[in-house]
Every structure is written in C-alpha cells, then in structure tokens.
Amino acid sequence: MSSDIVAAIDLGSNSFHMIVARIANGQVQTLDRLREMVQLAAGLDSRNRLSEESQLRALDCLARFGQRLRQIPPEQLRVVGTNTLRQARNSAVFLARAEAVLGHNIETISGQEEARLIYLGVVHNVADTAGQRLVVDIGGGSTELILGEKFEIHHLTSLKMGCVSLSRSCFDKGRITESRMREAELLVQLKLEPVREEFRDQGWQVATGASGTIKAIQDVVAQEGWSREGITLEALRRLRTALLETGRPETMAARWQLEPARAQVFAGGFAVLHGLCEVLGVERMEVSEGALREGVIYDLLGRIRHEDVRDRTIATVIDRYDLDKAQAERVSATAWMLLNQVRDAWHLAAEELAHNLEWAARLHEIGLLLTHDQYHKHGAYILEHADLPGFSQSDQILLATLVRRHRRGFPAKAFEHLPKERASLAQRLCVLLRLAVVLHRGRSRHALPMLSLQVNRQQLTLCFPEGWLDANPLTQADLDAEARYLKKAGFRLEFS
User: Fold this and answer.
1) Is the pTM of this model over 0.85?
2) Share of the chain above pLDDT 90, in %
C-alpha cells in the first residue's frame, strides 16, 4: 500500500457524499467528510432521462470532490452510483462526463450490493448487540432493508421508493395534506407488501436506521422532545400531526432549521419511515452515523488486504451450483500462466484484469446448469443478472462478456458494448481464456507440457515441446478451429 489514505464517494439519488479516511493499525480513522444535496433523482424526466441542469449540478459537485482526491492513488478510492444511475437511460453519457471531471472510474452498483455495503457501514459504526439486527436506509430513490447478525447478512432487499421519488409523486406542489399523506402511506404499504411477512417472521432484536432522511427525522423529534434517543413509533405519529400543521416545506425549514433542499423531500422521507415502522412493527430505531460510504471504505480495505468479498462470492457460486472444481482450476491456472507471459506486451499488468480473467475461468461452465447446447450464452445471462455480492454492474457485464465469448464465435464487435478503455483489454483477456479452455477440452487430469505464448499486437505464437502436438491430434484440431474463430476478430494464431 503506497499510502495509508483511502476514500469513497457515494453518488446517491438525493445527496453526494465523500469520506476520506486513514488506515492506522487496521482501524479506519475518518479525516474528512463532504456532503452536497445534488438531488440527482429530481432531474429525471418522464422518460427517465437526466436533465442537463441536474447533470451540471452533479458535475460541479464532483469537480469540488475531485480536488480533494488528487493525491489519493486510484486503487485506494472507490466511487459508486446508486438508484438514479441504475434508472437513468442516459446514465452512460453522464458517467463519461463525471469520470472525466472526477478523474476516476465510477461503478454503478445494484440495489442488492448497495444494501450489502450499507449493512457493512452500519455494523462497523454501532455497538455490538446479541441477536439479529434490522438495518433501514432511506435514500433518494430506493430504500434498503437488511437483516443480519454481527457481520453476517441473512436477508436483504432494495425497494424502489425514496424521499425524492415519493415527494415528487405525492407532494410535488409542496403542499402536505391529509389526503396526500394517506396516498404516500398507501404507496409505501404496497411496496412493502411482498416482503412484510418475510421480515416480520425472521424478527430482530434491534433496528438501526442510516443516512440523511433518518438523521434529519431524529433531529426533528429530538428538538421537539418527542424522543430522547433514536426514533420511536410514537414520535413518528406526533411528527405526522406536526407535518400536517406546518403544511409546506418552507414552514418546516423555518420551524426545524432544515436545509431548504432537505425540507423539499422531508415529507416523502417521513412517509417511507413512518409507513415502514407501522407495517413492520418497529417500535424504536437507533440511528447510525455509518452508511453506504463507510461500507465502501471497509469493502475497499478488504480488497487492499486481499480479503476481497468477490473471491468469496465466486467460491460460493461454485459450491452452490456444484461446478466441476477440478476443471475450473485447470483452466484458471493455464489462463493465469498465459497471462503472465504476455502481461507487458499486451498491457495487462493491472491486478484487477488478472482477477477478472481468473473469475471468468472459474465460472466459464456455469451455463451447463441449464444445458450443454449454447451453454456459454446461458452462462453469460446468469452472470449478468445474478446477485453477486461485491460486484458492480460493470464488473458483472465484463464477467458475462468473457464467459459469453469463451467459445464458438468471436466477432470483432463482440466487445463494443464495453467502455472504450476496457474493450480492447477485455478482448485480449478473452483470447487467453479461449486458449486455456481449448487446451483443457479433454478434461485430462494430466498436466500440460511446458508451453510458451508470444504476442506481437494481434499475432499469437503458441509453442509446444517437440512432438507433443503430433501425439495429441485432437488438441491440434481444436487449435486449428480456434485460429479460424480468432481470425474473424483480426487475430492470427500460429502454433508449433
């Protein structure tokens, strides 16, 4: 580790958060926090496209964040996007602009991954307790519910409702009335209906809330003297009455010293929390300082220490679906060996690239769960859409692409859907994976002979010991076929 400073940015639907921390004796010491209420979700139009105005607000914020991050190595920083970037149809355009301003890659994470990271951030910031914990995080566009015990997650879900989205749909003109509040509460109940019994049946000993909406509600009920510690259900009922009395965001802002931007989405966030507590029977909720960005920091720390949760995810998938571990290890070892021989010539030195090749090699046969026919296509679909803890959406798309193209057709356009900076590297990784699969097609337990791979741009030369190919004519035939596939993508494979 070249520095002991790490950082994380959470591009939330309501607020952007940044945390800078120092790792000292294995502990995380927060050095700096920045927060701006960008309200990205408010910029979504009826076609789920981000407006230029909302994009500019976000880019201005990221320019300020970027100045603070200039001295932090890229491998010690993670930037994650959440619900609005999952929804926006023009998110790719915005992300390209945002990455240029920030100077770092941005990962859009799934709702399930967001929930996992929130739980990680919360449990590192609250006192340990016996039994199961319910964690609730209300964001701008989604609400995450997680049940776990200590650092082990037992159940999680991400619901498409948040303080911004509910405020826009039910309190768009700002006026808070009884009928509008009932409409909001009904929407919350409908969203919770599919998961209500599951969460109530499992039960919990303590409920913990996180993020801006819940913190703001805690501050208000504390000001009013309705709850001394945390948030009680009785305090929420009294707050409901008070909201109907105040009637408008500007009145709320004056009464409770809320930021104007927070006041605009306060009623929607309240409706989510109050409805959730009523439906699930939460009588009291403590409030955590830690949330998604802290979870990203702890997850990043695991990667730096080579305790990457993604490795555990891959191992779990292999066990769960009873994949052929021996074959996966053979292909993975050969792909790794080939990679080491061409790292410099093909600019594949980054450790993350090696990880992606290894994961794809270990999971390349997952499509056999369905059928052997077109199993590479089935495998790609599974990996792109499965819940894979630790993986961002872009990670899963890359993994799925490598598996999709590890056999059969290899057209030149197969990687065009990936970001430009990843497309050519992914294509080269896939060539190595294809060669490793071909060399182990016979599934033999006997080790391969010493072989070498040399590359010069798109030219590959694979060399075997004298007479080995003559003694293994099937492998020679497979390599002949592979050379024809690779030729369509502009590669030339020779072997001797």
Assistant:
1) yes
2) 88
